[in-house]
């Protein structure tokens, strides 16, 4: 059994000032019944990323129900860590508040960009999110000296928050020198984070030099992580863990048939796993890092980790 692709679901019309193109990094939040609000990163005419949303009825025949008129987060003021753009990582609900973790962009001179991780919060999915601070909650340090990318946050237990995030392992940002893996940080409140540079999922596959945008669901007693992996081209990879600490790669469960032409022929990236009606679903981007929008797939058949669950 494997993933069944349901096709492209949404791409911006280009009519909104903040969403001229792209629907990158789809991030689902359940609203009610079959309705999910997918937050995503769009680009304006200056190619700066903003975070907005689209409501989708999730089923074997998904359909768009509504689109945000304005973004929930736009680039920050000049001089802040996100003045060149804001790209979503994840949203987690903690009691009556939503925590939105995102990646802020600064354009560079000697290097094209640098990134850090920010936090915004809201008591409702229908309003704007307020930044926790003009500065990031996770930035460059001696253990992360280069750049940080898309966070995935889970609350494992009371006072036990964990963040998986991308981190460059070397200074280079070009094809030959780029090395990017997934690291882990810990927090007691979701705001103040501690880390020691530990790599949660490292580079292993032949010619692989990037692992980015982790997403995690719990299946019984097992955690399943998916992420985008880049060698010759972008594809999806996966890892599993019983304790959310030690991860083993199982990329084979994220294989797609990539022989038919279409919106995701050349690239499959930026996954988001989620459960709905006792089925495992996947939102993901196709060609052009979200230029063709995002689509859905659903897992057909037996438990995706049946051989491990026992």
Describe this structure in words.
This protein is mostly beta strands and 310 residues long. It is built from two helices and 21 strands. It has a single domain, classed as Glycosyl hydrolase domain, family 43 (Tachylectin-2, Chain A, 5 Propeller), CATH 2.115.10. The strands form five sheets. Strands 10, 11, 12, 13 and 14 form a five-stranded antiparallel β-sheet that branches. It has a four-stranded antiparallel β-sheet with strand order 1-21-20-19. This is Glycosyl hydrolase family 32 N-terminal domain-containing protein. InterPro entries: Glyco_hydro_beta-prop_sf. It comes from Bradyrhizobium cajani.
Number of strands: 21
Mean pLDDT: 93
The percent of residues in helical segments reads under 10%
What is the CATH top level name?
A: Mainly Beta
Number of helices: 2
Q: What is the domain total for the residues?
A: 1
What is the CATH topology?
Tachylectin-2, Chain A
Terminal-residue CA separation: 18 Å
Annotated CATH architecture? 5 Propeller
Q: Biggest sheet, open or closed, and with what strands and sense?
A: 5 strands, antiparallel
Overall geometry:
globular
Give me the strand/helix succession.
EEEEEEEEEEEEEEEEEEEEHEH
Secondary structural class? mainly beta
The portion of residues forming beta strands comes to over 45%
Summarize the model shown.
It contains 2 helices and 21 strands. It is mostly beta strands and 310 residues long. The longest helix is centred in the C-terminal third of the chain and has 4 residues, at 287-290.
């Amino acid at each position: 059994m494997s993933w069944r692709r349901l096709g492209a679901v949404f791409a911006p019309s280009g009519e909104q000032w903040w969403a001229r193109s792209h629907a990158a990094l789809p991030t689902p939040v359940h609203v009610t019944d079959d309705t999910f609000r997918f937050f995503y990163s769009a680009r304006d005419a200056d190619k700066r990323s903003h975070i907005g949303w689209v409501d989708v009825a999730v089923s074997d025949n998904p359909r768009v129900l509504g689109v945000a008129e304005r973004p929930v987060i736009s680039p920050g003021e000049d001089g802040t860590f996100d003045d060149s753009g804001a790209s979503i990582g994840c949203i987690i609900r903690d009691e009556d508040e939503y925590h939105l973790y995102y990646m802020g962009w600064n354009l560079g001179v000697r290097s094209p960009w640098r990134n850090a991780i920010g936090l915004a919060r809201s008591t409702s999915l229908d309003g704007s999110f307020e930044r926790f601070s003009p500065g990031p909650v996770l930035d460059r340090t001696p253990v992360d000296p280069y750049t940080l990318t898309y966070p995935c946050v889970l609350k494992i237990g009371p006072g036990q928050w964990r963040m998986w995030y991308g981190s460059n392992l070397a200074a280079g940002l070009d094809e030959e020198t780029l090395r990017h893996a997934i690291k882990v940080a810990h927090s007691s409140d979701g705001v103040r984070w501690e880390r020691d540079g530990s790599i949660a999922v490292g580079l292993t596959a032949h010619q692989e030099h990037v692992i980015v945008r982790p997403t995690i669901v719990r299946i019984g007693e097992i955690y399943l992580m998916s992420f985008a992996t880049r060698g010759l081209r972008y594809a999806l990879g996966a890892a599993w863990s019983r304790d959310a600490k030690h991860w083993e790669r199982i990329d084979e469960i994220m294989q797609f048939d990539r022989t038919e032409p279409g919106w995701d022929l050349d690239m499959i990236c930026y996954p988001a796993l989620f459960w709905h009606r006792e089925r495992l679903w996947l939102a993901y981007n196709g060609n052009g890092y979200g230029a063709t929008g995002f689509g859905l797939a659903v897992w057909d058949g037996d438990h995706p980790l049946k051989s491990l669950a026992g």
